[in-house]
Amino acid sequence: MKELSSLQIERLKYQPKLPESLAGGINNLELVEGNKTECVKDTEQIKELFSNIYGKPIVTFKKTPEKIVPEKSNVGVILSGGQAPGGHNVIAGLYDALKQANPQNKLYGFLGGPSGIIEGKYIEFTDEKIDDYRNTGGFDIIGSGRTKLETEEQFQKALKVCKDLDITGIVIIGGDDSNTNAALLAEWFVKNNAGIQVIGCPKTIDGDLKNDQIEISFGFDTATKTYAELIGNILRDANSAKKYWHFIKLMGRSATHVGLEVALQTQPNITLISEEVEEKKMSLKQIVDYISQIVSKRADLGKNFGIALIPEGLIEFIPEIKSMISNLNDVLAVLENDSTYKSADENTKFSIIESKLNGEDSSVFASLPTMIKQQLLMDRDPHGNVQVSKIETEKLLIEMVSQKLEEMKKEGNFKGKFSAQCHFFGYEGRCAFPSNFDADYCYSLGYNAFALLKFGLTGYLSSVKNLSAPALKWVAGGVPLTMMKKKKKRHGQFKPVIKKALVELDGPVFKELEMNREVWAMEDKYIYPGAIQYFGPSSVCDITTETLRLENAAKLTTV
Ligand code: FBP
After folding, report:
1. What is the 381 CA–ligand 1 centroid distance (Å)?
2. Can you tell me which atom of ligand 1 is nearest the CA of 426?
């Protein structure tokens, strides 16, 4: 029986590229320190919370002929949060660097996410284990989880597990919330003289963990290429059958980077951008009117089909719903301990909530269909986020657009047909085989994470920059995690968080969409990107996203 696909066999042999500074070997590095850093907001509170790791400098690495062989060290690695293509390569890069530095070194993988380090569940990596997972998608090598590390008890347990394994460095591979975990753990270890360093790695398909120092999180490239392939196929189907409107919700949590990138790769008829909805204070009704107008105008041209991209987090950005959700979060935090509420049936729960919400928020909640109310009441994730992937905004919009078009039909303002299909793309892309870009980027991030540990740094995010250039020209280094911090209300309390990067409406990526969307709405300028290619010309296999291309090109013109 066949155990591996032909592609799997070939991908296992792929040798990821490293930046030139790292390619000379892990023991041939020199650390270059930049200026001290400040956090993005709430400086005094963040300084106080992270008094031991606050304000460190940005660092980069330089190749040096000197060979410094470090003492033996053991490292533990954690995969945290949602899967993103390339996670296995971060571990492979980390493992290769660690073994190259000193073959006596050991790498432990904590199982099932951050809970693994608390519960002492781990494996020790071997060459065979790592070789089986090189350049593969998924996080199944050790699994992932969303446990939040924040209590004294959790930290004490993690310390004991690390001491038992003689671990002096932890690498946490995660998104904004997981890297907040990394910063809290780093601070606690320094405060308690634990002698354990913590380094984060920027992971998330959402693309919202980025700033002046982090160009993109890993996984975004592969995930958006995967969705663009699927959407390209649907565009072609729609353009062939000419009878359906496809409403496609795309993962990405709050930010619309995924939707925007996929739109630039495929050029659909409608792309909603949550950040624009918020900025323009568009109500749900205005969004429905906007979509209905395009459906109707296309129908006038004889086109009763099209594609609308809907960001996963849209609902949280519609002003009246955003305000209601914020109020609802506070109400639910109190009701969590209310036995009458907890034992009530669904309709009674809705009534209790409506009675506790402020006037306007209460009417907004009451006006939503039951399906959406139920989805809004689902448990928050351990970091306090509404689980937007479970809110069926695409269905809500189809229902409301249908109603609007019925009204327009009665008034003689819509003469076409509206038959809609809904889709939700998210899980389809999170575990895809990493593109060459993600395979190289992730391997470099892991390798670089060990370099940061080797120089005794803690509370840093592994950073690899200049990503629009060929891999050899990438710049490896580290960014202090505190630099990205600010405070945010979670579960009714203020907590330190990493600032999420949302789509910038005056940035080059959104501008590109804005410039073209009216044409794309009416004329069918669809692009069919096809599947990710791993072998073939570099112009096909190694290109990265439009987002990175446009952002880096804009930086060059402003320098
Ligand atoms: P991360 O921030 O953990 O990388 O989340 C990625 C993501 O895919 C989001 O786009 C999505 O909202 C969420 O995970 C869904 O997570 P889950 O499958 O755990 O509900």
Report:
1. 10
2. 8
Q: What is the pLDDT of residue 383?
A: 67
Look at residue 493 in the predicted model and tell me its pLDDT. 75
The gap from C-alpha 81 to its chain's centroid, in whole angstroms, comes to 9
- Give the tokens for residue 114: 């951050």
Q: Tokens 């624009």 — which residue? A: 276
> Please, which residues have CB within 8 angstroms of residue 555's CB and are 6 or more apart in sequence?
none
- Strands 29-36 and 270-271 come out as unpaired
The minimum-distance atom of ligand 1 relative to the CA of 427 is 8
Average pLDDT of the chain, as a whole number: 94
- How many A from CA of 339 to the centre of ligand 1? 31
**What's the fold here for domain 220-430+507-532?**
Rossmann fold (3.40.50)
Catalytically annotated residue among 206, 208, 221, 438: 206
Residues within a 6 A CB radius of ligand 1 = 81-82, 84, 175, 204-206, 251-253, 312, 387-389, 426, 430
The mean per-residue pLDDT over the stretch 431-455 comes to 98
Q: Which CATH number fits domain 69-215+434-473: 3.40.30.10, 3.20.20.80, 3.40.50.450, 3.30.70.20?
A: 3.40.50.450
pLDDT digit string, tens, across residues 323-347: 999 899 889 989 988 999 999 999 9
Phi, psi of 487 (to 5 degrees): -100, 150
In the chain, CATH 3.40.50.450 covers 69-215+434-473
Atom of ligand 1 nearest to the CA of 390: 20
Give per-residue pLDDT as tens, 109-138. 999 999 999 999 999 999 999 999 999 999
Q: Is the pTM of this model over 0.90?
A: yes
Ligand 1 atom closest to residue 208's alpha carbon, by position in its atom list = 2
Pocket test for ligand 1, best of 176, 204, 256 (most atoms within 8 A of CB): 204
Average pLDDT over residues 216-228: 98
> 452 CA distance to ligand 1 centroid (A)?
27
C-alpha 87/C-alpha 134 separation (Å) is 10
Cα 515 to ligand 1 centre (Å): 30
Residue type at 107 in one-letter notation: L
Contacts of 435 (CB under 8 A, 6+ apart): 85, 221, 222, 225, 532, 534, 541, 544
Active site residue 338: no
Using the mean position of ligand 1's atoms as its centre, give its distance from the Cα of residue 233 in Å: 24
Q: Provide the pLDDT for residue 301.
A: 97
- Over the range 25-57, which residues count as b (16 or more CB within 10 Å of their CB) and which as e? ebbbbebeeeeebebeebeeebeebbeebbbbe
